C-alpha cells in the first residue's frame, strides 16, 4: 500500500522503516529535513513539504500523522485539508486526547475526508517487535487500511476499538495502567534495596528470576533487568519522572464517570512528587521509561535541570509509552 508518514520522531521514523521492510510504498515528511534524508536512504520517498507528500500518493490517499498532540496536529490537519480530496484519509497516531479526535472527525467530514485515531504502543522497540495498535473510526476505512496495521503490529497486535475516539481512549487507559504497574515495580525494588538483605541482592538477577514463571512477569521486568545490569544502583540518573498527559486524562475520566482508580491516581501524583525529591523508586520509573521509550532521563549530576524543572511541566503527548 501507499502511505505518507508525517513526523519522523522516535516512533514515526521506525514505523516508516517497518512499513518499508513490509513492502509498502512510504512517503516521509518531517519539519526538519535531516530525518527525511535519512529515511530516504532506506527506501522511502522523501517529501520536504506536505504538498509534495500528498502529490506523491494515488487517491484515495492515506496520511499518517506521528506528531505531538494538540496544536501541532490541528495545524497540520489545517494545512492538509486544501491538499486532500474527498475519500482521502488522515490517521492520527500520536497520543491525542480522544475528545479532540471527535472534533477533528466532524471538521473533516465537511470536506469528505476520513479520520482514524490510532493509539500506538511499542516505544523504541516497535521496529523489531511490532507496534500494538488501537484504532477508532469508520470500520470500513479501518478495513481498507488493514494491510498497514498488519505490517506494523505483531501477530494479533492490532484491534478495531469502535467509533472515532475509541482508539485513543483505549490507549489512554493503557498508559494509565502502565503508570500503576511501573510504580508498583519501583516501590517493590525500593523496599528490596532498603531491606537488611538489600546490600547482597542483585536486582538485575531478581528481575530475571521474577520473569521465570512468576505472576508478576512482564516486559517491564525485562527492561528493569536491562537497566539494573547497566547501573545496579541507578546512581547515574535522577529519579525525575515526566508524564505524557495521558495519566492525567485517565484520572480525569475516572472522576467524570465515578470510577475509583486509586492506584493510577497515586501513580500520577508520584510522578509529580518525583520532581521535588530524588528516590530510588523514582529512579526505577525513570530507568524503565528510558528503556522502553527512549524517553530522556535527568542525569544525577545535572543539578541545574533538577532545581529548575517545575512539577507541573508536561512533555509533549506524542511521546508514546
Structure description:
The chain has 321 residues and is of the alpha/beta class. Helices cover 50% and strands 12% of the residues. It has 15 helices and eight strands. It has helices spanning 10-21, 33-40, 50-55, 71-80, 98-109, 126-129, 139-144, 146-152, 166-194, 203-210, 219-230, 246-257, 262-274, 280-293, 303-308, and strands spanning 2-6, 25-29, 45-47, 62-65, 89-92, 114-121, 132-136, 158-162. Helix 2 (33-40) links the parallel strand 2 (25-29) and strand 3 (45-47). Helix 9 (166-194) crosses helix 12, helix 9 crosses helix 13 (262-274) and helix 9 crosses helix 14. Residues 303-319 have low confidence and may be disordered.
Number of strands: 8
Structural class estimated from helices and strands: alpha/beta
Report the radius of gyration as a whole number of Å.
21 Å
Mean pLDDT: 92
Low-confidence stretches: 303-319
Give a short account of the largest sheet. 8 strands, mixed
N-C termini distance: 27 Å
Q: What share of the residues lie within helices?
A: 40-55%
Q: Element order, helices and strands?
A: EHEHEHEHEHEHEHHEHHHHHHH
Shape designation: globular
Spatially, the strands of the biggest sheet line up as 3-2-1-4-5-6-7-8
Count, helices: 15
Query: Which percent range describes the beta-strand content?
Result: 5-15%
